[in-house]
UniProtKB/TrEMBL annotation:
InterPro entries recorded: Cys-rich_flank_reg_C, Leu-rich_rpt, Leu-rich_rpt_typical-subtyp, LRR_dom_sf, Wnt_signaling_inhibitor
Domain of life from the UniProt record: Eukaryota
SUPFAM superfamilies named among the record's database cross-references: L domain-like
Any single Gene Ontology cellular-component annotation: plasma membrane
A biological process from GO: negative regulation of canonical Wnt signaling pathway
Alphabetical list of Pfam families matching this protein: LRR_8
UniProt domain LRRCT: residue ranges: 165-214
Assigned keywords, A-Z: Leucine-rich repeat, Membrane, Repeat, Signal, Transmembrane, Transmembrane helix
Protein name: TPBG protein
Organism: Baryphthengus martii (Rufous motmot)
SMART domains: LRR_TYP, LRRCT
Transmembrane annotation, as ranges: 227-247
Amino acid sequence: LSALNLSGNHLRAVEAGAFSALPALRQLDLSGNPLVSLSPQAFGEGGSSLEELALRGALRDHGVLLSVAAMLQSGALRNLSRLELADNGLLLLPSGMFTALLALRQLDLGNSSLVGLQNVSVQGLGQLQSLNLSDNSLGVLRNGTLAQLRSQTALQRVGLGRSTWVCNCTVEDLVTWLKESDQVEGKEALTCSNPDKMLGKASLKINGSDLNCSESVDLPSQLQTSYVFLGIVLALIGAIFLLVLYLNRKGIKKWMHNIRDACRDHMEGYHYRYEINADPRLTNLSSNSDV
């Protein structure tokens, strides 16, 4: 048996060793199953020769997603050339999920509610030819992701359609890549969703004047400058305070002596009253003197 289609069968669990008795299996489709449990050892301890795996709409449970990530990272599916994870509410993918799939050629992450690709790395996937990221909520592709996509010489098709692109200063590098590269399918149809003034504008027609990014925003540098300025201000305040103390040293010394004398007189009064209260004879003498 080389191909097995189990899509739409209401499967909820895939136990360890479920496919270990199928050494010739090359294609497996588990799409449309509401999985709540999938063992990372589903293909046995020795791995599998599986080449195509479809899990469209089957990773609604986050625990199942983590199990799939562990299975992929373990190298059990090192021969996988096609992986379909579309139509899942993934949001964010586990870090390094695809790093062990060195034979991967097609990766479908379309319509998976992805909000970022921080943990997704295609570095080292030298055979990757097709990457579908359409129908997601990415907003923007960061410089690190763009650098990885540029470095993939075998990558021919990247799908970015129907996503909510935020066209502010962070989109400049993405626009530059779109204009220079032929990897993106249908890039002429990519439009801005935010902010309101850029709504519906074609990404390829964006220029620097539209974004008003004459001064780049470097938050770490700004914070570092603020800390330095704060340190200088505090140092000046401390120096002024010490100077004031030095100029008024005589007055301060006199003030301290006055406080010391006042405290001494006060304590002597308390001491005198204590002696009178402690000695009955002094108490009677004090009473007679009052009379």
